Amino acid sequence: MENQFENTIQKYSSMENVKGILVTDNNGLCLGSKGNIKSNSAAYVSSLINRATEISLDSSKPIISIDTDNTNFLISSENDITVALAKQKMNN
């Protein structure tokens, strides 16, 4: 499992405009973080994706998008882990 979240952190942190990444298990335990996402938000991130899964209309896994003035947060579940990305918003 350790390699799985390390690979996930490496994969997403190298993407353009990514300011932070947080990886949690299904119980909200922080498995790793990098950048400007606080590790103490792991339980909240896990809870959000679990609730979104409960209200999903089909069996597909939800992706949560939270937008602020400067940042897009994307939260999704991948295998047995939840990944939250903080991306710098592109200026138009």
Write the topology of this structure.
Blueprint: H1 2-13, E1 18-25, E2 30-35, H2 42-55, E3 63-67, E4 71-78, E5 81-88
Antiparallel strand pairs: 1-2, 1-5, 3-4, 4-5
GO cellular component, one term: Ragulator complex
Family: Belongs to the LAMTOR5 family.
Keywords: Cytoplasm, Lysosome
- Separation of the first and last Cα atoms: 40 Å
- What strand order characterises the main sheet? 2-1-5-4-3
Q: Which topology does CATH recognise?
A: Beta-Lactamase
**CATH homologous superfamily assignment:** Dynein light chain 2a, cytoplasmic
Rg is 13 Å
Beta percentage is 35-45%
Order of helices and strands: HEEHEEE
The CATH class, by name, is: Alpha Beta
Fraction of residues in helix: 25-40%
The pLDDT mean sits at 86
Count of folded domains: 1
SS element count, helices: 2
Largest sheet: 5 strands, antiparallel
Kindly state the number of beta strands.
5
Q: What class would the helix/strand composition place it in?
A: alpha+beta
Low-confidence stretches: none
Q: How does CATH name the architecture? A: 2-Layer Sandwich
| Overall spatial form | globular
Subcellular location: Cytoplasm; Lysosome
Pfam family, one: LAMTOR5
Family: Belongs to the LAMTOR5 family.
GO biological process, one term: positive regulation of TORC1 signaling
